[in-house]
Amino acid sequence: MKKNVTVYDIAQELGISSGTVSRALNNSTLISDEKREEILATAERMHYRKRSIKRQQTRAIVTVRLFLPAAKYDYIHLFYDVAELIEGIQEGFGDTRVHIITSINDGNLAVFESKKLGDIDGCIFAFTVPSAALETLLEEREIPFILLNREKPENNYVMIDSIGGMKRLVDVAWEKYGAQLKPCYVGFSPLAGVSKRREEGVSIRCNDLHIPFSDKDVYNLDSISELRSSILADILEKKYNTVFCFNDMIAVSLYQSALHLCLQIPKAFSLTGFDNSPILDLLDQRVNTIEFSLEQLGNRSGAWLLSRIINRDDIPIQENLEGAYILGETI
């Protein structure tokens, strides 16, 4: 028998990802018209036939699978409370009953093969992204999914506005130092995508204020131990008066490293974090930071999935939510 043409065959023919092919075949508005036309024409030429999927129009209970980062990324788990996220998702679904199944995003596709759990109506990827294979599987089965605080141009997502948040922190430092502001940014390589956006926020605002800031003023950590071993010494040697940290974890680590050298914050230098995570409670001073609302992220994702699953709306979402500035004592 002749082998049926799959999305993988079309992707290989065009030299693009299978996820992109699936989105085009499912009429996603996140794909450009030009790219969609090319994919559809290729599918027709290769005699592709879309698999028919039977789905119930209404369900008494909506089942959502919530994917969380793998345990090896233990630093991520310091940033959020899963219970707060789940509460936000439930609020987003309103009066609709929702069954939330949590899974670790380890690339295992078998989670969709269990009949005991019933059909999955939608997926949420919190602080993680699906593999290409999983993304294609979801597209093929027409299961809507959304990313939380992760950004991919062809996916639906809700994020905290990292750029806007960092701009706000630069403005606060500017109010103290004015033209004497000498900033640096400490990023985090394991979360390079988010870290780069926050660095961009610092860069844009410094440029607006005519404050010198370049790649030479950026430090990207591979591990927290680098703060005490090398980066703190460099910060002191170059006489930076403000350090913008990628998140609260780095801010707390830098604060404690400074204390180890008998330095006082903000006398030695001003310090900011990002996320307003529980880890800040470890310090005797509040760090100036931007609040990261998990409940709000969950609420928006739940409301969007409700619209897709129940109302059958096909409206994409790519949204940046404004964070709240939290006044501290480290500037």
General description of the model:
The chain is of the alpha/beta class. It folds into 3 domains: about 5-45, no CATH class; about 60-160 and about 295-320, Response regulator (Rossmann fold, 3-Layer(aba) Sandwich), CATH 3.40.50.2300; about 160-290, Response regulator (Rossmann fold, 3-Layer(aba) Sandwich). About 35% of the residues lie in helices and about 15% in strands. A 6-stranded parallel β-sheet has the order 2-1-3-4-5-11, covered by helices on one side. Strands 7-6-8-9 form a 4-stranded parallel β-sheet, with helices on both faces. It has a two-stranded antiparallel ribbon with strand order 10-12. The chain starts with 6 loop residues before the first helix and ends in a 5-residue tail after the last strand.
